[in-house]
Amino acid sequence: MVLHQVPARSIILEVSDGATTPVWTEVGGKLTVTVNRAENEEFVDTTTMESNGFYSQDKMQEGATLTLEGRLVKDDTTGALEPGQALVTANASGKFGIESHAMYRFRYPMDTEWTVWDATTSVGEQGGNHNENTSFNATLSRSGPSTTVAVL
């Protein structure tokens, strides 16, 4: 076994089409993908007088988010969004309650398993200045625990 640093750019992020037998589509135009496994954690203070001035706590909730930043990519003839960006955008628009959930998976090329999330989706600001390409931003907030599935 040889250990190597992992380039951040090599992450593979895919979104499900939501079908019973899902078709997974890679999200294109990525610049940064950041997984925050501590987002939405909640703790309860368990400090008492008997703690003799030392703080103590218990974790009550785990959470996680994946933040995607990239470039908006469209077909120059039809104006259609890049397929992965189109699915991410659709997952964020006009869906509420359980319908607001979508499936995402991500991994690095050397991983033998995908990390799979049931997540809600928020699409952020799009824009830029006169010397920039238009941005594409999304935040995936995990709902429930992560699962894994083997890379086939």
Please sum up the structure shown.
This protein has 152 residues and is mostly beta strands. It has one domain: Elongation Factor Tu (Ef-tu), domain 3, CATH 2.40.30.
How would the blueprint of this fold be written?
Elements: E1 12-16, E2 24-26, E3 30-36, E4 42-45, E5 57-61, E6 65-71, H1 83-92, E7 101-107, E8 113-123, E9 135-142, E10 147-150
Antiparallel strand pairs: 1-2, 1-7, 3-6, 4-5, 6-9, 7-8, 8-9, 8-10
Write structural notes for this entry.
With 152 residues, this protein is mainly beta. It has one domain: Elongation Factor Tu (Ef-tu), domain 3 (Beta Barrel), CATH 2.40.30. Helices cover 7% and strands 40% of the residues. The strands form two sheets. Strands 1, 2, 3, 6, 7, 8, 9 and 10 form an eight-stranded antiparallel beta sheet that branches. Strand 1 and strand 2 (24-26) form a beta hairpin. The longest helix is centred in the middle third of the chain and has 10 residues, at 83-92. It is globular, with a radius of gyration of 19 Å. The model has no long low-confidence stretch (mean pLDDT 97). Residues 123-152 are annotated as: Disordered.
